[in-house]
Write a structure and sequence with these properties.
Layout: H1 8-30, H2 37-62, H3 70-86, H4 95-114, H5 120-137, H6 143-146, E1 152-153, E2 164-165, E3 168-169, H7 172-195, H8 198-208, H9 210-215, H10 220-246, E4 248-249, H11 256-269, H12 276-294, H13 299-313, H14 317-329, H15 351-354
Antiparallel strand pairs: 1-4, 2-3
Helix pairs in contact: 2-7, 2-10, 2-11, 2-12, 3-4, 3-5, 3-10, 4-10, 7-10, 11-12, 11-14, 12-13
Length: about 375
């Protein structure tokens, strides 16, 4: 039955989308019982990295502010959760919003320099943050809280109940998988609601045409600072989840390479793409292991070659390629949507608008009136 006001093709597409979501939900629930504990631990990290990449994508992909320091916000969230659990006795589930709030304040304060910096200048400023935070965590006056170079050892939370399903016990890693999955769903729904409305359109307008955005009444300083804060809050929640999943934090776990890996995951998944965060998280989690299995002597070289090939074949990321294939598969009316990928100025035009219109018959000029005699 066709609903009034909606074409049948759109209803069919929406129906297939809901079917795909249902299948993904069933697969996500069954996945931890089909694999061993170590693989469950790896998928826990995939969910953690997906939240962190989503936070970076809000800042860079949607708002156009380039950051190389999100590993620092990840470290702040991880250490904040670890200190609250180990020193203050706060339950692990309560540390998530608190770590997000702390990182929001830190990101908002970091957003003030971003008002005067942009492009590679902002990247260098955030790079300094990524280099400074691990050293500050080792500072001797903070050792009573951070544990210094030794870090903080945590205890993985036990599941609230135990059972067996498909021959697998409901272990601590599987419980953390469902807890991490629930937090991931909440964070992605928050991002989706934030970016699909007026705020998302304002962020894209600031990214693409800041002068025009300011002319339309968008407060650039407020939006840029808040975007930095929200992005850092998402990454801080991911850091807190990572501390609970790994049950250990140390300054050496949050070096500059973490920020670079998050940036690689965002680019591979696709800029300005919410589901692309999952693709990028799987890439940075599993591809280094695959490269290590292919070559024990030079895994970094294999990783670099795979990354170069991927960028050559899919310069807009995996989800950018999916968007293009989807636009080709859709009917002509759906091709007129503007691509949200930054730097892309191409707009697909329906085929019927590109056809040359038939020439209209030219109207014959009005007959001249006979000149009156003596006129």
């Amino acid at each position: 039955m066709t609903l009034p006001g909606r074409p049948w093709s759109e209803q069919r597409t929406a129906r297939w989308v809901w079917v795909a979501f249902a299948l993904l939900a069933v697969a996500a629930v069954l996945l931890p019982f089909l694999i061993k504990n170590y693989r469950v631990f790896q998928f826990n990290l995939v969910l953690v990295y997906a939240i962190a990449i989503l936070g970076l994508n809000i800042l860079t992909g949607f708002n156009g502010q380039f950051s190389l320091g999100h590993g620092a916000f990840y470290a702040i969230g991880a250490y904040g959760a670890a200190i609250m659990m180990d020193r203050m006795g706060i339950p692990y589930w309560a540390t998530m919003p608190l770590a997000g709030a702390v990182c929001f304040v830190a990101g908002y304060l970091m957003g003030f320099p971003a008002l005067r910096l942009g492009g590679h200048y902002l990247a260098v400023a955030t790079l300094a943050l990524a280099l400074a935070v691990p050293q500050l965590l080792k500072y001797k006056h903070f050792e009573d809280y951070t544990g210094g170079v030794q870090g903080i050892v945590l205890v993985k939370p036990d599941p609230p109940f135990t059972f067996h399903f498909l021959g697998q016990p409901f272990s601590a890693d599987r419980w953390l998988y469902f807890f991490t999955l629930a937090v991931t769903v909440v964070m992605f729904l928050l991002a989706w609601n934030l970016l699909r409305g007026r705020v998302g359109r304002a962020l894209i307008a600031i990214r693409d045409h800041p002068i025009a955005a300011a002319t339309m009444g968008i407060n650039l300083p407020v939006f840029k600072s808040l975007t930095f804060g929200v992005s850092a809050a998402f990454t801080g929640v991911a850091g807190a989840l990572g501390a609970v999943v790994i049950a250990f934090v140390s300054p050496d776990s949050f070096q500059l390479t973490l920020s670079i890996f998050l940036l690689v995951g965002m680019v591979v998944g696709g800029l300005a793409s919410i589901p692309g965060a999952f693709v990028g998280a799987m890439f940075i989690q599993f591809v280094p292991n695959i490269a290590d299995e292919m070559s024990k002597s030079a895994p970094a070289a294999i990783y670099g070659v795979l990354l170069i090939v991927l960028m050559y074949l899919m310069p807009t990321g995996v989800m950018g390629m999916v968007r293009r294939l989807w636009a080709r598969w859709q009917p002509g009316a759906a091709r007129s949507r503007i691509n949200a990928i930054p730097g892309s100025s191409s707009v697909s035009v329906p085929p019927d608008l590109t056809r040359s219109s038939p020439e209209r018959p030219q109207a014959s000029p009005p007959p001249r009136r006979a000149a009156t005699e003596g006129g």
